[in-house]
Amino acid sequence: VLSLTVQPRCKIIRFILIQNRAGKTRLAKWYMQFDDDEKQKLIEEVHAVVTVRDAKHTNFVEFRNFKIIYRRYAGLYFCICVDVTDNNLAYLEAIHNFVEVLNEYFHNVCELDLVFNFYKVYTVVDEMFLAGEIRETSQTKVLKQLLMLQSLE
Amino acid sequence: MTPSVRLQEMIRVIRSARTQGEERGIIQRECADIRSQFRQGDNGERSHSLAKLLYVHMLGYPAHFGQMECVRLIASPRYSEKRIGYLGAMMLLDEKQDASLLITNSIKNDLSHSSQYVQSLALCTLACMGSAEMCRDLAPEIERLLRASHSYIKKKATLCAVHIIRKVPELAELFTPSARTLLSEKNHGVLHGAVVLITELCERNPDTLVQFRKAVPELVQIMKGLVTSSYSPEHNVAGISDPFLQVRILRLLRILGHNNDTASDAMNDLLAQVATNTDSSKTAGSAVLYETVLTIMDINSESGLRVLAVNILGRFLLNNDRNIRYISMTSLQKIVQTDHNAVQRHRGTIVDCLKDQDTSVKRRALELSLALVSAVNIRSMMKELLIFLSVCPPELRSQTASGIFNAAERYSPSKRWHIDTILHVLTTAGGDVRDETVPNLIQLITTASELHCYTVHKLYRALIKDIAQQSLVQVACWCIGEYGDLLLKGECEEIEPVQVTEDDILDALETVLQSHMSSPATRGFALTATMKLSTRITDNVDRIRSIVSIYGSCIDLELQQRAVEYNALFKKYDHMRYRSAVLERMPVMDKNSPGHTNGDTSGEIKEPDTSKPKPVEAGLLSEPASQVIITGYSEMQKHCCVYVHVVPTVSVYEKNGLSLKIQCDKQTETEVTVTLIASNSTQNDITNFTLQAAVPKSVQLQMKAPSGNVIPAHGLGQVTQTVLLNNPNKASLPCFRFVQLSFLLN
Q1: 3-class secondary structure for B248-274?
Q2: Are A60 and B160 in contact (CB < 8 Å)?
Q3: 3-class DSSP state for residue B738?
Q4: Do A137 and B128 touch (CB under 8 A)?
Q5: Residue B362 CA to its chain's centroid (Å)
Q6: Which of A95, A144, B40, B65 is the most buried (most CB within 10 A)?
Q7: In what residue span(s) does the AP complex mu/sigma subunit domain sit (chain A) (predicted)?
């Protein structure tokens, strides 16, 4: 059994995943130490758990000994794995915040944008989340930074 | 880095592969290409190659050979190469890889780079995959950045510090002073990071927590500012000013106010303000309200505030958004013990949530409903719970059933209601109840002696309707066996009378015996019940005899053994009135009587295997016959529903005029008192009469003085002797006593 607790009740984001319905990973950001095969297993399990749910379910799933906050946007599932005692609604808002930034940045983002510009998606994630915590929540600020960074490349 | 056409091209080509095999082939080619690119050294193409490799890695293919390239690229002066190098490090390297140490130096240099974006890359990478060693190395740098730099860097530095503390807790002291000063920052991002950092410091070190309690007024001020400021466009989400920051501050306040009156007092007003002023029409507001409720419940808040919090949760229950209903119930569950009355007010809404379509919501509603059952509302709640049981998803059934049983046990308004409820559950969800339900129900039935008639009628009707639910069938068989005579009488107060003949009953039991749906245990119940009826019915005893003898050759060993022994009861021991004694009505069972807690699930009182009884020497009148009785007795005890010592009087020896009876006087959990009565119907007195007894090791024997040692002739008198059997370990019931007689017959 994988133990995914750094400490008992450590309130940290364990990982952020973007997956499509078929199970293909479009982004996997890990904030805790896992082996490669552990990561693979987690990805598969999250996919299995999340894709069987529909509109009549809540956006929270209890998963192993913590929980997944997720939301579906078109064909993509955005999942954040947090501690059982964490505030579900806050993370739900964080997901939405993140998606809105992506939308702005890629001008009506679609899955292919995330595929062909995968490294940019990581940049966005790293602007908004860090060390397993929410980092910057102001969409305007994040977008400003992203444009700056883009100009450097 | 404008992605080279080749990267985009590669992605397109990979996506166009039609089969897994084709994709693998493309990947292999590309990887070979990438490898040769890496070998070529600096040619401006390295970052593109690494980017391609990272894409391949995301698809799930191995990419370890790129690790060293990451290290090289990080050390490059060009931003685009550094950038990809760091991304690669975060994706391909983790603290377990040796290569990760190699980048420590680069990170160190980049932390002091002139460009804040390079600094930011280094911070980000360290916060993502920094090992304990790297953290120790670079902690002073981070601390410096906390104090000196631009807010863009400070934001990242605070969270990087959080990561360092998690990896190396001893370094917490290093960051404590700077953390304090960061609270005066105006920049929300930095403030947010500072609050997270302080939270982490306080959670790890109680002394630091005490220190930071002094910051409560400052935190309260910041919150007030957020709540009242009507317009903060940058961090505004659905009209709420930076809900994320509010949530973090509330969480920190919770930790600081926990178990501390001064701190709790200082935040009381603020919490009330947030609770009343926050708009909960959107998720953002609800998130803040929720965190507020959690904080109120966890600190020493005044009761008015607590009521406010529970009311918020109650409002949440009525929210259209299922998410909000769900988290409300999660919280209500935590406080249902401490604030029971407050939660009771929302019982109606909670019960309604049983009908929600999401199973996790249903589960929460079930747990809460069970916690809210009380003597006052038991009838109405049970109605709802029973309805729920019949429609709930299978994974919740056994939890519901056992919850119903517990509630019924504690709050039943009457025995009949209790029995009815259990029967209802067994009919609806008999397959999902725990094993102890059967003996528990049997015990309950025996205690409700005024309801025996009602119960057996009800169970009989349930039995003839359906024999699929094993637990129900087992209880029904037991009842019919025990109270079959009441069933035949036909009249019953509380239920419509129905004519039941002996054949009807035997038909029902035989159906159970023969059905393939019946489990072996159930068939055991049925067979024993049939046997017991032999003393309760009058006409059809022969039918019973034949049923029992058929099963004497049954393939099931357990059934066969029972049948053989019941046969023995018919054949050998009929004349000793053993059969009727053995099959007599059972007394009311004590809940904790040893037989009851016996691990056996059949509900019958089963004796464990006895070792072969010692041959009894009976002095001058040593009788093989007496041995047979005794041996047979113990065999039967193995499988019959009999309390040996409860049968009022049993004759254990009758020969040549001397008869010895055992009479049970008293029986408790650990002790049995019997009286041995010896009488003499011969012409002459019997003198020098003594009795000795031996018992199994676990039992203590105490024989009181006999009333005499001469038994008068012609049955004119008796000799009695009281014997105490003590079974302190509540081990298997003292199954047997070996009796030795010796006397002189004149």
Answers
A1: HHHHHHHHHHCCCHHHHHHHHHHHHHH
A2: no
A3: strand
A4: no
A5: 17
A6: A95
A7: 13-152
- Residues present in chain A in total: 153
Give the pLDDT score at B607.
36
B547/B223 Cα distance (integer angstroms): 82
Q: Long-range contacts of range B405-409, CB-CB < 8 Å, 24 or more positions apart?
A: B405/B433, B405/B437, B405/B440, B406/B370, B407/B370, B407/B373, B407/B378, B407/B381, B407/B382, B408/B378, B408/B382
Q: Are B168 and B135 in contact (CB under 8 A)?
A: yes
pLDDT in tens, A34-65: 888 889 999 999 999 999 998 888 999 988 88
- CB-count exposure of residue B577 (10 Å: 0-12, 13-18, 19+): exposed
Neighboring chain B residues of A35 at a CB cutoff of 8 Å:
96
Answer whether A87 sits within 8 Å of B189, measured CB to CB. no
Q: Are A18 and A76 in contact (CB under 8 A)?
A: yes
CB contact under 8 A, B60 and A40: yes
CA B240 to the chain's CA centroid: 41
* Residues B680, B689 contacting (CB under 8 angstroms): no
DSSP alpha helix (H) spans, B94-242: 99-102, 104-111, 116-129, 132-148, 151-167, 172-182, 188-204, 206-213, 216-228
> Which tokens sit at B170?
């001893």
User: How far apart, in whole angstroms, are the C-alpha atoms of residue B121 and residue B223?
Assistant: 31
Residue that wins the pLDDT comparison between B738 and B708: B708
DSSP structure class, residue B65: G
First to last CA, chain B: 123
Maximal C-alpha separation, chain B:
129
Alpha carbons B438 and B444: distance in angstroms, whole number: 10
Best residue of B8, B48, B52, B58 to probe chain A, by most A CBs closer than 10 Å:
B58
Mean pLDDT of chain B: 81
Output the CA–CA distances (angstroms, integers) from residue B89 to A31, B116, B127, B374, in the order listed.
14, 19, 12, 59
CB contact A58 to B (< 8 Å)? yes
Backbone φ and ψ for B412, nearest 5 degrees, come out as -55, 130
Q: What is the ipTM of this complex?
A: 0.87
Dihedral sign for Cα B699, B705, B709, B713, please: negative
Give tens-digit pLDDT for A107-131: 999 999 999 999 999 999 999 999 9
- Over residues A146-150, the mean pLDDT reads 90
Nearest to B284 by CA among B232, B247, B333, B253: B247
The Cα B388–Cα B352 span in angstroms is 10
pLDDT digit string (tens) for B107-164?
A: 999 999 888 899 999 999 999 988 888 999 999 999 999 987 788 899 999 999 999 9
Task: Report the residue from A26, A34, A134 with minimal CB separation from B244.
Answer: A134
CB contact under 8 A, B326 and A60: yes
What are the tens digits of pLDDT across the range B351-381?
999 998 888 889 999 999 999 999 889 999 9
Of B87, B90, B323, the CB nearest to A58: B323
Q: Do A89 and B290 touch (CB under 8 A)?
A: yes
In chain A, residues 15-44 whose CB comes closer than 8 Å to chain B: 24-26, 28, 31, 33-35, 40
Q: Hey, of A39, A130, A134, A139, which one would you mutate to test binding to chain B, going by the most B CBs within 10 A of its CB? A: A130
pTM score, whole prediction = 0.71
The mean pLDDT of A73-91, rounded to a whole number, is 92
Phi and psi angles of residue B60, each rounded to the nearest 5 degrees, phi first: 110, 5
